[in-house]
Amino acid sequence: MDTQQFIPNSLQNKTTKTSFTWKTPSNIALVKYWGKTDPQIPKNASISFTLSNSHTITTIDFKSKNNSEANHNEINFELFFEGKKKEDFKPKIAKFFERIREYCPYLTTYTMVIHSENSFPHSSGIASSASGMSAIAMCLMSLEKSLSSVELTDEFIYKKASFLARLGSGSASRSIEGPLVVWGNHPAIKGSSDVFGIPFPYEVHEVFKNYHDAILLVDKGEKQVSSTVGHDLMYNHPFATQRFNQANENLATISEILQNGDINSFINLVESEALSLHAMMLTSNPYFILMKPNTLEIINAIWRFRNNTGSKVCFTLDAGANVHVLYPANESETVTQFIDNELSKFCQKNHYICDTVGLGAIKL
Ligand code: PMV
User: Fold this and answer.
1) Last residue of a domain, one of 162, 181, 203
2) Which pTM does this prediction carry?
3) Ligand 1 close to Cβ of residue 46 (< 6 A)
4) What spacing in Å lies between the alpha carbon of 71 and ligand 1's midpoint?
5) Is the minimum distance from the CB of 170 to ligand 1 under 6 angstroms?
6) Which residues lie below 8 Å from residue 102, measured CB to CB, with a gap of 6+?
7) How many Å apart are CA 295 and CA 276, to the nearest integer?
8) What's the pLDDT at 69?
9) What is the CA radius of gyration of the chain?
10) Does residue 139 lie within any of the structural domains?
11) Range 289-298 average pLDDT
């Protein structure tokens, strides 16, 4: 894989003080990524809807170090989250910067002050690593663009941002563009790569444009098992090979479905993917369960509603107890009513977030 293309060779140090702000979205996988090898290479390809309302806004202020100042080999930054200094988030970001320093040599020539905030409530159980890492990656690419003596194309900027974000959190590679992003090399997806995400390269059927996702907040607490630990448990997992094959087959199938608009097959595949992801957790050793009783209540209520009404609503799950309720735009009113009447009672404080498919990162 050609990662050399991401090492800049025509940088000039013309900027002493600058600042960039980006708004980047979260995403929800339809075919899941679970299992990887070093350095963040996925064991199977995945695809996600980019979201819109669930996002992170990050500003990075860059100031070039003067000669008397700090060590020029060190990466120096301060981090503020929702206006407050956040020392406990720093190690994760420091590790991310170390991983990408080869590709971003300017990281050591500036001191950085990072301000970040999420649109979704803190500790909502919605992973902020995808939107958080992609926002930092976009700010770095804005700096790189301003330092580069050759013109960087938007295509290159997005590709490298996805490449960098992936090194912070795998699924973050899918949080740069939209509305559908594939990450992981796959023969059915032209241009796909293990080291960055690409927009789904084929024409998407009308029904999947503007899809809705209501995120039902079943459990806002910290996850008992992090996704890093979960990914690691796929080493020596008894069903790992079958799972990676299943996911790759599902990716080929969903590529067809997204083009031909077969919504019943979409429902079947997406729900099966969600349950297969959680089946990997149930059958890891040590085993663990991230679903809660109310996760199952919601799933059963969705199945009942679909049987009774012929609705095309379905669910998917992330690595947590919250339920993503997916439905086409033309069912927006009936499904919202259904959620209010029958599902919100299973959410903490009846809380859910209405989101729709979005187009990706926006510079502010
Ligand atoms: O990006 P990570 O390491 O947090 O892993 C994300 C894994 C899932 O969210 C469970 C699935 C996915 O493909 O997003």
Assistant:
1) 203
2) 0.96
3) yes
4) 35
5) yes
6) 7
7) 15
8) 60
9) 21
10) yes
11) 96
